[in-house]
Amino acid sequence: MREIQLRDAKSGLSALVDDAVGGEPAIITRHGKREAVLLSYQEWERLSQVPSFGRLLMAAPLSPDDLPPRDTTPLRQTEF
Predict the structure, then answer these.
(1) Cβ-defined contacts of 62-67 (< 8 Å, 24+)
(2) How far from each other are the two terminal CA atoms of the chain, in whole angstroms?
(3) How many domains is the chain built from?
């Protein structure tokens, strides 16, 4: 992935978009700091559909026998 300064990206935006659609995203920098990434809409859509780890766990087809029994011993003894 190539890096391009913001001022250069402004002047060559059309070419950058064409490159992104062709599968070559670009990192846009400002004052040497990475600020944004230009990628195709198709790639953004693919990446935005990745489920979170929590959603993957909730969707897992588990039955009660798949998990070990719960340990119910107290973590520590308290005296009052």
Answers:
(1) none
(2) 63
(3) 1
